[in-house]
Amino acid sequence: MNSNYALHEMLEVHEMAAFKTICMTKSKAMQILVTDPELMQILQEDVQLSQQQLQELGGVLTKMTQ
Fold first, then answer.
1. What's the start-to-end Cα distance of the chain, in Å?
2. 8-19 burial, b if ≥16 CB within 10 A, otherwise e?
3. Distance (Å) of CA 61 to CA 8, 16, 45, 54, 65
4. pTM (2 decimals)?
5. Which of 12, 16, 63, 64 is the residue whose CA sits 20 to 30 A from 38?
6. How many other β-carbons are positioned within 10 Å of the β-carbon of residue 44?
7. Distance between CA atoms of 45 and 25, rounded to whole angstroms?
8. Residue 46 burial (CB < 10 Å; 0-12/13-18/19+)?
9. In this predicted model, what pLDDT tens digit does every residue of 32-43 receive, in sequence order?
């Protein structure tokens, strides 16, 4: 573990990643139930943005553990 980061900082990033994963999963699941095209577009954009943010959080965690 990089000594520049405290354990609680790493845990907070993990918590953010876990929360973002739950949000993305919910958006994907809700797409099955949605019939409104505008709401479907919002959910699809949320999933794409969440995937990008999770990749960024993964990069942050990788840097923290090097």
1. 6
2. eebeeeeeebee
3. 13, 11, 24, 10, 6
4. 0.83
5. 16
6. 14
7. 13
8. middle
9. 999 999 999 999
Q: Compute the distance between CA of residue 60 and CA of residue 66 in angstroms, rounded to an integer.
A: 10
Helix (H, G, I), strand (E, B) or coil at 15: helix
Residues 6+ apart with CB under 8 A from 29: none
Angle, to 10 degrees, between the axis of helix 37-65 and the axis of helix 7-30? 160
Task: Give residue 9's identity as a one-letter amino acid code.
Answer: E
Q: Dig out the tokens for 6 from the structure.
A: 């405290």
7: amino acid identity, one letter: L
The pLDDT of residue 3 is above 70:
no
Collapse the DSSP code of 32 into the 3-class scheme (helix H, G, I; strand E, B; otherwise coil) and give the result.
coil
Q: Which residues touch 51 (CB under 8 Å, ≥6 apart)?
A: 24
